[in-house]
Every structure is written in structure tokens, then in C-alpha cells.
Amino acid sequence: MDxxxxxxxxxxxxxxxxxxxxxxxxxxxxxxxxxGVIMIDSCKEEHSNYLLQALHHLGKTADxxxxxxxxxxxxxxxxxxxxxxxxxxxxxxxEGEEIRGFDRELSDQGVAGEFDYMLAGYHSPGxxxxxxxxxxxxxxxxxxxxFGDPLSEEGLVxxxxxxxxxxxxxxxxxxxxxxxxxxxxxxxxxPLHFQSEIMCTGHGGVLVGEVNEFMEELVSExxxxxxxxxK
Length: 231
Ligand SMILES: [Zn+2]
Ligand SMILES: [Zn+2]
Description:
Blueprint: E1 3-9, E2 12-19, E3 24-33, E4 36-40, H1 48-57, E5 65-69, H2 75-78, E6 88-90, E7 109-112, E8 115-119, E9 128-132, E10 137-141, E11 157-158, H3 161-172, H4 181-188, E12 198-201, E13 206-208, H5 211-230
Parallel strand pairs: 4-5, 5-6, 10-12, 11-13
Antiparallel strand pairs: 1-2, 2-3, 3-4, 7-8, 8-9, 9-10, 12-13
Helix pairs in contact: 3-5, 4-5
Organism: [Bacillus] enclensis
Pfam family, one: Lactamase_B
InterPro entries: Metallo-B-lactamas, NDM-1-like, RibonucZ/Hydroxyglut_hydro
């Protein structure tokens, strides 16, 4: 199993597993604090042992994990959380009831510790975007991610110019279907509420810098697509 551990900023780390079955990087994130570790997403169950290795590498154990925030309920984002027995685990109640071990306490907009969050409801009904205020890092889950894409040549955490361009081109090429475009557009506007420096996604590259500029570019491209479709 190949996996990467890279510092995003301060005491925040990205873990990216190469999933040979899905042919994609699957990501999750650790925020190391004095009194424990907060995770954003937790990858698949089969990644659990590697999560422990990554934690160990950072001088922490499974018992140090105090909070797991799920961006949404797909298996590659929640299943690894099962082994963090002492952690509080939060997910939006609109996600599937079969998801075990999570408290379904999130509202449509709120605060969880140093995170602001908002329901995006795109990609899955209860998908949530988190914004970590102290670091100005945005966690988008699979609303906006790089599923199946290679990393930027500059590495996991980088400006990722070519990744950004690939998303714009994907939208231009009609990659998001007409029926999905209105919901996608609405969700794309959520990050504009925040002043993010860095965007961490559910799969692949972590983008550093000009996050809102990137969102605005995507919003305007999605608007173009909608106008084309409705003419
Ligand atoms: Zn997903
Ligand atoms: Zn995913």
C-alpha cells in the first residue's frame, strides 16, 4: 500500500492512500492539538492500519483521536473511524442511517470547535463543507475533489495549477450534467463565505493559495454552462 503523509500547514497533515481498486487517491486529514487529534474523514476500513502508522509517525496513537468530522457518509470517508473508540464522531443527519458509530448532530450551518461548517448537499444529501478558522483551511470532501487524477508534479500539497485547469476544462466540457448543475453551482458558492488559504479535498491534490479565485472561476463557468443549456 502506498500512502503519503504531508504537512498542509502548522500542525495539520494530509494523508493520501493510493487505492488500487478505485484507482484514486483517498484522503483524510489530521489536526494535531495539545489535548488530542481531530480528523476530517477517515478513509476505508482497509486503510485503518495505515492510519495508525501515520498517527504513530506523527507521535500520536488511536486513543489520541478525540473528534472525527465526516464530510459525508461514503465508505471511503467514514469506515476507518471505527477504530477510534474514544472519539466523538459527527456527520450530518441526512447521510445514510446505516453508518455506524457517528452522532448525527450537525445542523445545516454551525460551529464545531474551531470549525465553521455548512451543508452542501451535493454529491450526497448530507455532504458538509468545513472551514478551520485558525488555519484558514477549507475541507470540501467530494463536492470538489480530484478523484482518479494524478497529483500535481509539485506534490500532494501545492498550488496545483494543472489540477485547477483540469476542473475548469471538465466543467467546460460538460462533465457536470445539466440536471446536476444547479445543485453544484449552489454548493460552489458556499466556500465564498470563507477566506480560505488552502483547499483540502476528499481525493488527491491539496491546493494552496487563491481558493476563492478558483471557486469564482468555477462558479462563472458553471453559470455559463447553465446559460448554454437553458437557451
Ligand atoms: Zn463520496
Ligand atoms: Zn470519496
